[in-house]
Design a protein that fits this description.
Blueprint: H1 8-17, E1 30-31, H2 34-44, E2 50-55, H3 61-69, E3 72-76, H4 83-89, E4 96-99, H5 108-115, E5 121-127, H6 133-143, E6 149-155, H7 156-162, H8 173-179, E7 182-190, E8 195-196, E9 203-210, H9 221-231, H10 239-243, H11 249-258, H12 272-285
Parallel strand pairs: 2-3, 2-5, 3-4, 5-6
Antiparallel strand pairs: 1-8, 6-9, 7-9
């Protein structure tokens, strides 16, 4: 569909008429490109059997398209000043609910169960605020397994790190933390020029598809995630040097020899399955 909300003239007019402005404290940048809005919705692959969660609907440019395609849209908007404008812009739809809360503070499972009814699929679609992108993603992944697909726009550097592959500069602890639970795919880049106001960085849209049958399962997930953080704590150091601040060098040496891995290996050379093996080994041998 060709939305009425997502263009620069409409955004400028709406902000001026309602005495509104983009608030830096909420990371607000209003997307004004019709094609990109359509591409985001297309990437979500939603239909009337889909229950959509949106974060930060802003003036409703993306929400309008989501309401048109989805069965129901539950949107979280932290800025109460935008609520009257949002409801006005979406007045022709009756398949949405806007909750005026910070997504980091909600009980997402409770809200989903309240509104989702009999929809087959639950998908999150969001243009995430740059300053809290990672806390939002990791928070939701740790709090709920009900959302099976994420379609998110974020700062391009963060997108590249999430989708990073072993032996590349973008691969890091975040790549593994998210890759443990979901398949991450970068869809397309978004230039900074299509926002009002224009941010200082370019963006990208990625998808996360949660595994129905996870290929990785650590025996102690808390230990696994701690191990990843330590392994990438100083990128220029070897794995042994990074981990020796937490575990004995003797234990790490034995572990690497056990798995026939060179002693001077760096964390970015290893894939998720390696770190699961390491985590399980430490779990079973750390008291020796």
């Amino acid at each position: 569909m060709q939305g009425k909300i997502g263009n620069k003239a409409f955004v400028d007019k709406t902000l001026n008429e309602n005495n509104l402005y983009a608030k830096k404290k909420f990371g607000q940048n209003f997307l004004t490109d019709q094609n990109i809005l359509s591409n985001i919705v297309d990437s979500a692959n939603i239909d009337k059997d889909t229950f959509v969660i949106e974060i930060g609907p802003g003036l409703g440019a993306l929400t309008e398209r989501l309401c048109d395609k989805a069965g129901f849209v539950l949107a979280y908007e932290i800025d109460s000043d935008l609520l009257p404008v949002l409801n006005k812009n979406l007045s022709e739809y009756n398949n949405y609910e806007i909750i005026n809360k910070d997504i980091l503070e909600v009980d997402i499972n409770e809200d989903i169960n309240k509104y989702k009814k009999d929809y087959k699929n639950i998908t999150l679609v969001a243009n995430l605020p740059y300053y809290i992108t990672t806390p939002i993603i990791l928070g939701l992944l740790s709090k709920t397994s009900l959302i099976r697909k994420y379609v998110m726009m974020m700062q391009v550097e963060v997108a590249d790190r999430i989708c990073g592959k072993p032996k590349t500069k973008d691969y890091n602890a975040l790549s593994i933390t998210i890759g443990y639970r979901a398949k991450a795919t970068k869809c397309f880049n978004v230039p900074r020029t299509v926002f009002v106001p224009a941010p200082n960085v370019d963006s990208a849209v990625i998808t996360l598809d949660l595994y129905d049958n996870p290929p990785f399962k650590a025996k102690d997930e808390e230990l696994f995630f701690k191990l990843i953080r330590e392994a990438f704590s100083q990128r220029r150091k070897t794995l042994i040097n990074n981990l020796s601040s937490v575990y004995s060098k003797e234990l790490i040496n034995k572990m690497l020899m056990e798995f026939n891995i060179k002693l001077n290996v760096r964390s970015e050379e290893l894939d998720i399955s390696d770190f699961v093996k390491f985590s399980d080994y430490i779990f079973e041998n750390r008291n020796e």
